[in-house]
């Protein structure tokens, strides 16, 4: 049920119950449980009952777009002849994309220091696992430019996301002014171009920044990631919070052999992987490195993503 928004011209009668209107579609408990099972199998996302309203509002759009009259009909169609392309729309609808430039800013001085230690290397590789609309991988690129005091540092960034709908925005590299309003003026001047005319009110990352980043669709639950080993850093921030502990552990085990010697794993501030301390060692500020014993077994690893 949806509550009608308050209208100041028509004040409610004191003590009267709120006026509600029925939802467009009925979503039964069975429908919701079925949705939870499907998105968990497909993307590893673990939903609970507190997300029911969010699930309804996002998937109701898919029912309208596909002309289905109920969640049961839509889910039957999705799992039957209607699969294929609609599975990606289903996943896109239930994926949360919350990001910003220099989000969790304490990580980027750590990254810059790490990159400075790698001076002299011909190629430095970084993987950003949750590119979303591009702010995080472009921040990584800017940090690399700052670390090397150059618009052409030897750093290449692979930026992936399960949600294909956000990758086009990321590739375009164009954002509203308010997305960069809190950035230091010097950073804004050096790494962004302001729009004019029809593009007034927007900024775009400089071509040199965009050239450092390659965007690809990737599902962390896929059995093959099509990535080479030898990453010097992996950013997987605020992704694992949507997975259960078993899924987190499985992904962390796959990260370890992808990191080169001394490679760093950056995770979100609310993510804690104490269950994987035999694989990763916490350095501080939610930055991890491969446990030395595990790294010794792996041996030296180097390659391009």
Structure overview:
The longest helix has 15 residues, at 29-43. It is globular and about 60 Å long. Strands 8-4-3-9-10-12-11 form a seven-stranded mixed β-sheet. It has a three-stranded antiparallel β-sheet with strand order 5-7-6. Strand 9, helix 10 and strand 10 form a beta-alpha-beta unit. The protein is built from eleven helices and twelve strands. Helices cover 36% and strands 18% of the residues.
CATH superfamily of the largest domain: Vaccinia Virus protein VP39
SSE ordering? EEHHHHHEHEHEHEEHEEHEEEH
Q: Kindly, what is the distance between the CA atoms of the first and last residues, rounded to a whole number of angstroms?
A: 48 Å
**Number of folding domains?**
2
User: What is the architecture of the largest domain at the second tier of CATH?
Assistant: 3-Layer(aba) Sandwich
What is the arithmetic mean of pLDDT? 89
Which parts are unreliable, with pLDDT below 50 for 5 consecutive residues or more? 299-304
Which CATH class of the largest domain?
Answer: Alpha Beta
**Number of DSSP helices?**
11
Judged by helices, strands and strand pairing, the structural class is alpha/beta
């Amino acid at each position: 049920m949806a509550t009608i928004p308050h209208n100041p011209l028509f004040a409610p009668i004191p003590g009267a119950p709120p006026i509600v209107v029925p939802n467009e579609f009925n979503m039964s408990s069975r429908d919701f449980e079925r949705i939870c099972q499907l998105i968990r199998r497909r993307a590893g996302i673990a939903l609970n009952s507190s997300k029911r309203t969010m699930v309804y509002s996002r998937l109701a759009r898919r029912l309208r777009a596909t002309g289905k009259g109920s969640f049961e009909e839509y889910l039957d169609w999705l799992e039957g002849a209607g699969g294929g392309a609609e599975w990606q729309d289903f996943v896109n609808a239930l994926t949360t994309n919350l990001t910003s430039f220099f989000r969790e800013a304490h990580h980027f001085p750590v990254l810059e220091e790490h990159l400075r230690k790698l001076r002299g290397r011909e190629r430095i590789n970084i993987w950003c696992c949750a590119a979303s609309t591009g702010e995080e991988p472009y921040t990584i690129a800017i940090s690399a430019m700052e670390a090397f005091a150059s618009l052409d540092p030897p750093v290449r960034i692979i930026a992936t996301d399960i949600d294909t709908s956000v990758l086009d925005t990321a590739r375009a590299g164009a954002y509203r002014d308010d997305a960069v309003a809190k950035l230091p003026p010097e950073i804004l001047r050096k790494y962004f171009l302001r729009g004019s005319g029809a593009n007034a009110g927007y900024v775009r990352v400089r071509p040199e920044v965009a050239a450092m980043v390659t965007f690809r669709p990737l599902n962390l639950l896929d059995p093959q990631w099509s990535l080479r080993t030898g990453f010097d850093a992996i950013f997987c921030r605020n992704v694992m919070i949507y997975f259960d502990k078993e899924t987190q552990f499985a992904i962390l085990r796959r990260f370890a052999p992808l990191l080169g010697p001394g490679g760093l794993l950056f995770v979100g501030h609310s993510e804690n992987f104490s269950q994987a301390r035999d694989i990763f060692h916490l350095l501080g500020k939610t930055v991890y490195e491969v446990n030395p014993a595990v790294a010794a077994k792996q041996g030296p690893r180097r390659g391009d993503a």
